[in-house]
Amino acid sequence: MLETAEGQTHVQELTNRNDHPQIDVYFRAAGIPHPERMKWQAKPYCVAFVAWVFIQCKVPLPKGTLTSVAAYNRMTNWRLKPGQTPLPADVVTYTIWSHGELVKRWPPDPRIRIFIANGGNTTAGNGRQGVYANIPRPKSIVRHIIRFIPET
Question: In 3D, which of 141, 150, 144 has the Cα closest to residue 81?
């Protein structure tokens, strides 16, 4: 799964207006039939990218359109319970902005305050929006962690 996500790091927006052609592919996979008709301001694609990754890897997802962070925040049945350690490919949403990404690495040691994510529609600390891997994020801003792949 993470290899599929990281294989999209070539997706870099030309003008920071959600304008790479692959972004429409993410939206179509996540349930939007004509994303090319949407205004760029209405196309935050972070979780459409996440849904696309799961779909490419044939992971079953809940029914519905999976293009808004709010939809992921409402997925109470898939949220990690307190005390569960996030695993690679779990989905994180954040408290300080409406955004979602995939966990790449979550250090279980509580003294380590950051985790590593892969995501789309982010700058990952530079000025160009796109898909990035190995993004350091503070654990303290995570709102929900959602798991679609059952532990084995």
Answer: 144
